[in-house]
Amino acid sequence: MGKSIVPDWAAGLNCSIIVCDSDGVIIYMNDRAVEQYRKHGDLIGRNLFDCHGERSQQIIRGLLETGGSNCYTIEKEGVHKLIFQSAWTRDGKVAGLCEISIITPESMPHYVRG
User: Which whole number is the average pLDDT over 17-31?
Assistant: First the structure.
């Protein structure tokens, strides 16, 4: 097996991490992501575009084209999450997208620092 693109610390991190290549093909899922999507089977090698609606596909395409990032919060089945999506680069070119999903408390503190 080739050298991992993600260091070992990401595997056991207490958030979900999914990485795809520039075509939207999933190339990495940490342990939490695998557990989160277990009912869908092994997603490594599957394409993100097959798992998302048109609106989400447009956002993903835009991030892959521009090298940008996207951040938002959701609530699903009473669980609050912060979703951060960002393009990742190799040799200065967009090589794919990484999504980090973090469970947050229902009432998360917000601090303004000077």
Answer: 96
76 has which bridge partners? 79
| Burial of residue 64, with CB atoms counted within 10 A of its CB: 0-12 exposed, 13-18 middle, 19 or more buried | buried
Closest to 47 in 3D by CA, of 76, 79, 15, 22: 22
Q: Which one-letter DSSP state was computed for residue 47?
A: B
- 3: pLDDT strictly greater than 60: no
Burial of 75 (C-beta count, 10 Å sphere; 0-12/13-18/19+): exposed
The two tokens of residue 46 are: 């599957």
Distances (CA, A) of 82 to 30, 41, 50, 93, 103: 17, 24, 23, 26, 6
pLDDT at 39: 95
Q: Taking the model in full, what pTM does it have? A: 0.88
